[in-house]
Amino acid sequence: MRWVEEVMTPLSVCLSDTNSCLEALQRLNEINSSGCPVVDKAGELLGTVTMKALIERMIHNDRSPADLSFLEAVERNPLVIKPSLRLEEAWACQFDLAVVIEEDGQIVGVLSRADLAVALYQEAEFQVKELEAILNSAHNGIVVINSDGRITSFNNRAVQLFTRVSREAIGRHVLDVVPIGLMETLETGKSEYSQEFRVGQRTYIMNRVPVIQEGQITGAVGIFQDISEVESLSQELAAVKELNSELNSIIQSSADGLCVTDSAGIVRRVNRIFQKVSLGNTQDLVGRGIQEIEEAVYGHPLFDLVLQRKQPVTIIDNKNNRSLLVTGNPVFDEDGKLLRVVINLRDMTFLNQMQQELIDAKRIIENCQELSESRNRLETGGMIGTGPEMIRVFELIRRVAKVDSTVLLFGESGVGKEGIGKLLHTQSNRAEGPFIKLNCGAIPEQLLESELFGYEQGAFTGARREGKIGMFELAHNGTLLLDEIGDFPLNLQPKLLRVLQERELVPIGGAMPRQINVRILAATHKDLEEMIRGGQFREDLYFRLNVVPIFIPPLRQRHEDIIPLLNHFRDEFSKKYGFKRKFSPEVIEAFLEYDWPGNVRELENMVERLMVVSAGDLIQVSQLPISFKSSAGKSARVSVNSLMPLKEAVDEVERQLIDKALEKFGSTYKAAAALGVNQSTVVRRMARFRRTDAESPA
C-alpha cells in the first residue's frame, strides 16, 4: 500500500500571479514537473498551470514570453488532496493535476495523473511479482486453472514434482499435465480438503478450491503436499525427541549445575543441581530472566559478560560460606549468531576444603623438613657431608666443641678446614664471642708478629702513636683460627708456644704480660712431623697444638658428598645471579668420576664457572674442561663381548649400570641421581629384572 506523499512532486515555492510565462516555464523545468500551483500575493491558491498550457499561451501570443503573463493559462479550482491519501483513492478522483496540501493548509507538492498511473502500474507489477515469489517459495505445490481448464499458474514446487519446465505447463490443459481433479472442482464448485492421490511412486494430499467472481466459477486452485516428506519429518521428529530425552538425561545426571538460556537470557532448561543451588524448582526458573537468577545465586552479571566477549567466561564467587565456580559458554549457529548460553555451576566448597587440608599438610611437611634442615645446618654449620667419614668428623666436633682443648685441623687445601673451625666455634660455649681467622702464610714474617701479638705506642719506627691490639686480644673470649700453621715463622714459634702454655702475651715494646682467654685452633695441609724432622717446626709447639687432631678427608674419598655439594652450590649461585641452570646426567657422572684435586673449593668454583658461562639452561658435558671429559669418557665406555638381540643388550646395560650405581652409592635415590633418572624408574627396572630372573629356566 502506497500514499500520495510517496509519488507527488514536492514543492518548496509556488508560482506567483506576478510571474511571466518565461519565469513559470523556467520554474517547471527546475522542479522537473509538468505543472505547478499558482498563489496570489496573500499566498492563497488561485489554481494550477501546466507546461502544456504555458507553451500554448506563448505560441498563440506575439508578445515576448518575458513580458507575457500566464494567468490566462491558469486552471481555476483545481483538485486538492491530502498527502496521506491512498493512491487507489486518488485514482478514483478526476484530475490532470492535483495540488497536495497538508492539514494546516500548507502546499507541499503536486500530483499529475500520469505520475499516479505510473506509480499504480509499478505497484500492481510488484504485487504480481510478490504473489509469484510467494507461490514459488511455497513448500507445497500449487496449480491454478481458468474456467477453460487451462493452467494459469504452476509454481516451482509443482514443477519439481510434475514437470521439468514451468512454461511447458503454463497454458496447457490441466488434464494433459497432471490429473489432480481440478476439472471436477470447476464443474461442482465444491471445495475439497485432504484428498489423497498418487503420481508414480509418490503419494500426495490435495486441497481443491474453486475461484468464484461475481457468483461465477472462473477457475480452480489445487494445493498439494508430498506425504513422503511428512513421514520423513515424522521420523526426524521422533529422532529429535529421542535425542532431546537423552540430552535431558545427561543434563540431569551431571554433578554440576547446568542452566541453558536463549540469546535474550530467558531460561529454557535447568537440571536438579542448579535448582538445588538456586533454591528453586523447574517451574520457578524456566521462563525467567537469567540476570535475576544470577543476582540471587552468584552475584555476577555472567550472561552480560558472555554477550560482550562472545567467548566462554569463568567467575568465582565466595559468599555464605560457599565457593562457586561458574562458567558461561556461548553457542553460535553457522552464521555466528548467538543461539544459546550454557551456564555451568560447580560448588567448589568441598574441593577447596580438601585443597586447603592438602596445603596445610604440605606446609606441615615443609615445616618439618625445614626444621630438620635447620637442625642439620645447626649441627653441621651449613657444611655438606653425608658420608661416614664426614659423619665421624661432625660427631667428633660435637664432643670437642664442649671443651677448650686446642684442635689441629689436617686436610688438603680446599677441603673446608675454615668451615670446620667455624663449626667448632659456633657449637662451643664461646659462640657469642668473636671468631677470628689469621692466614699465617699470607702475612709477611716481619708483620706477622705485630698482627698477632700487637704492639705498644712507639714500639718501632712507623708504629701507630696509640699502639695496636693484636689478633689474640681481638679474639678474647672467643676463638682464633691459625690457618696454614705450617708457614708460621720458626723464630716466632717460641712466643706462640708461651701463649699456648701461659695464656698470656707481651706486646711488642711492652713490659707487662696481658692475660687472654682465647681458644686456639690451627689448620694445615702440610705434614708437620716431616717439617719437625727437617728442623722447620718446633716439636714442643706441635705437641701443644696437636691436642685434638681432626683429619678432614679429601673430596675424592667421599664421592657421596659430590651431588649434595653440587646442588648446594647450584642453589647458592642461582640466588646470587638470579638465574637457574640444570646439570645434565652426563655432567653429574663426570663430576662423580673426577678426582677433585682442589677438593670442595674446586667444586664450588667449577659450579660457578659453568653456571656463568653456560648459554642455555641445561649445562652439557661439552662445556666441561678436557680433564673432566676424559674422565667421563673412560667411565662411560660400554664393552660388548658377544652378539645378542639389541633389546637384551639394552636391558643388560641398564642392569649393569643400576647394579654399579647401587653398589657405589648404597641407595636408590643416590643411584637415580647419578644415572639421571627418577628414583621410581630405578625401582621399576629392578623389579622387572627380578621378574625376568624368576621366569628364566634354571
TrEMBL record:
<keyword id="KW-0805">Transcription regulation</keyword>
<feature type="domain" description="PAC">
    <location>
        <begin position="309"/>
        <end position="360"/>
    </location>
</feature>
<dbReference type="InterPro" id="IPR013767">
    <property type="entry name" value="PAS_fold"/>
</dbReference>
<dbReference type="Pfam" id="PF00571">
    <property type="entry name" value="CBS"/>
</dbReference>
<keyword id="KW-0067">ATP-binding</keyword>
<dbReference type="Pfam" id="PF08448">
    <property type="entry name" value="PAS_4"/>
</dbReference>
<dbReference type="Pfam" id="PF00158">
    <property type="entry name" value="Sigma54_activat"/>
</dbReference>
<keyword id="KW-0238">DNA-binding</keyword>
<keyword id="KW-0058">Aromatic hydrocarbons catabolism</keyword>
<dbReference type="InterPro" id="IPR027417">
    <property type="entry name" value="P-loop_NTPase"/>
</dbReference>
<dbReference type="InterPro" id="IPR035965">
    <property type="entry name" value="PAS-like_dom_sf"/>
</dbReference>
<dbReference type="InterPro" id="IPR025662">
    <property type="entry name" value="Sigma_54_int_dom_ATP-bd_1"/>
</dbReference>
<dbReference type="InterPro" id="IPR000014">
    <property type="entry name" value="PAS"/>
</dbReference>
<keyword id="KW-0547">Nucleotide-binding</keyword>
<dbReference type="InterPro" id="IPR030828">
    <property type="entry name" value="HTH_TyrR"/>
</dbReference>
<dbReference type="InterPro" id="IPR025944">
    <property type="entry name" value="Sigma_54_int_dom_CS"/>
</dbReference>
<dbReference type="Pfam" id="PF25601">
    <property type="entry name" value="AAA_lid_14"/>
</dbReference>
<feature type="domain" description="PAS">
    <location>
        <begin position="127"/>
        <end position="178"/>
    </location>
</feature>
<dbReference type="InterPro" id="IPR058031">
    <property type="entry name" value="AAA_lid_NorR"/>
</dbReference>
<keyword id="KW-0129">CBS domain</keyword>
<dbReference type="InterPro" id="IPR000644">
    <property type="entry name" value="CBS_dom"/>
</dbReference>
<feature type="domain" description="Sigma-54 factor interaction">
    <location>
        <begin position="383"/>
        <end position="612"/>
    </location>
</feature>
<dbReference type="Pfam" id="PF18024">
    <property type="entry name" value="HTH_50"/>
</dbReference>
<protein>
    <recommendedName>
        <fullName>HTH-type transcriptional regulatory protein TyrR</fullName>
    </recommendedName>
</protein>
<dbReference type="InterPro" id="IPR025943">
    <property type="entry name" value="Sigma_54_int_dom_ATP-bd_2"/>
</dbReference>
<dbReference type="InterPro" id="IPR000700">
    <property type="entry name" value="PAS-assoc_C"/>
</dbReference>
<dbReference type="InterPro" id="IPR002078">
    <property type="entry name" value="Sigma_54_int"/>
</dbReference>
<dbReference type="InterPro" id="IPR003593">
    <property type="entry name" value="AAA+_ATPase"/>
</dbReference>
<dbReference type="InterPro" id="IPR009057">
    <property type="entry name" value="Homeodomain-like_sf"/>
</dbReference>
<dbReference type="InterPro" id="IPR046342">
    <property type="entry name" value="CBS_dom_sf"/>
</dbReference>
<feature type="domain" description="CBS">
    <location>
        <begin position="8"/>
        <end position="64"/>
    </location>
</feature>
<dbReference type="InterPro" id="IPR013656">
    <property type="entry name" value="PAS_4"/>
</dbReference>
<keyword id="KW-0804">Transcription</keyword>
<dbReference type="Pfam" id="PF00989">
    <property type="entry name" value="PAS"/>
</dbReference>
